[in-house]
Every structure is written in C-alpha cells, then in structure tokens.
Design goal:
Blueprint lengths: L9 E7 L8 H15 L5 E7 L9 E7 L11 E8 L3 H5 L3 E4 L13 E5 H7 L9 E4 L4 E9 L14 E5 L7 E8 L5
Parallel strand pairs: 4-9, 6-8
Antiparallel strand pairs: 1-10, 2-10, 3-4, 3-7, 5-8, 6-9, 7-8
Length: about 190
C-alpha cells in the first residue's frame, strides 16, 4: 500500500523552537524562512520543504472542521481533520500529488486571505458531487474561515494499512509553528 508520498532520498529534521527565544509567530516564520534559504544552498539538493508535522513523524494536530456558512453539525456529527502548516515547496519535495487546483505560493502569506489545501478523502466527503475549489471551510478554536485552493492525494500518517483520514494543509507563512520539520529531497544517496 502506498503511503501517498515518495520517501526515497528524503531526509527529515525536526526542530522544536524554544518559546523563550521565539515567542512570536513572526519570529518562528523568520526562523523557518532562514533555515529553508540555507538548506537550498546545499549540494546534492533537489528540493526542500517545511511542515509543522510530517507523516510517520510523531504527534499531529487535529482541528474541528465544517463547511463555512452551513449550520453547525450536532456535536456527535462533528468531524476533525489533521492540520498541517506547510511551506510552498512541501508537496513537491514529498512528491504528494496535487490533484486539483494549485499549490501554495509566495502570495499566501500573512495578511492575505487564508487558504487551505485538503486531501481527496475530505474533498469527496464534503463535496461528493461537486468541486471543492473556491469553497470555504471553518476550522479550529478561532473558527478561521479559509478558501480551498487545492486538493492533494491521501497521505498515510502512521500505518500503511490505515484508512484515509481527513487532512488539511495551510501555508506555514499564515500559521507559523514552533515545531518545524524540514524535509530535504536529495539527488541521490548521501553516503
């Protein structure tokens, strides 16, 4: 069973930023941007991306999700999605297929409209007969409303035989994280 990404020639380093040195979101964002820029200069590098969490990489964060503008579901019918903040090149680095729409880009930064990419299972469950692109979802404790700009294939999170789960991705620039995993795809074996 495919994990939904290509792990070949990918190395991941996870960093936990100390709150005493990086208490503000802008400081966390700057750190991620600076590390990504430095990693891009390394030899044998094919691509690099960053995420608040990577598959098979530890504890993920889940948030309550609903379609924006629809009546709130009954408590027993509420759904959650795994929530991951990612850099613009994360999907291409991990080789997670973009099925519809667009990946994140430099315009998806702080101060711009919130955008989200969801996985195909979430897209099918929420819009079984329609197109999720341009639709809006509401999520998290702040009830953030975000526009869906893309759909990616399902990614296994802990086990290769697990059933697909709802997954949503937001730009790391719009949702900085004190925990950051840097995924580096190399041109070959780094022996």
């Amino acid at each position: 069973s495919s994990p939904g990404f290509n792990p070949a020639n990918v190395m991941v380093v996870q960093v936990e930023l100390p709150n005493t040195r990086y208490p503000e979101a802008w400081q966390q964002q700057r750190f991620s941007q600076e590390v990504l820029a430095r990693i891009r200069t390394l030899p044998q590098l094919k691509s690099v991306g960053a995420a608040s969490w990577v598959p098979f990489g530890g504890l993920e964060r889940s948030v309550a999700v609903e379609i924006a503008g629809m009546p709130a579901p009954q408590p027993s019918k509420r759904r959650t999605a795994q929530f991951t903040a990612v850099s613009a090149n994360y999907f291409s680095t991990m080789q997670i297929a973009l099925l519809k729409g667009r990946p994140f880009n430099s315009t998806d930064g702080p101060g711009n409209l919130p955008v989200t990419i969801i996985d195909q299972t979430m897209a099918h469950d929420l819009w079984p007969d329609g197109n999720p692109l341009g639709q809006r979802i509401q999520f998290g404790p702040r009830h953030t409303v975000s526009t869906i700009v893309g759909v990616v294939n399902d990614v296994k999170t802990y086990y290769l035989r697990e059933r697909p789960q709802w997954q949503m991705y937001v730009p790391l620039a719009q949702s900085p994280s004190a925990t950051v995993s840097f995924a580096v795809r190399t041109t070959g074996d780094l022996k």
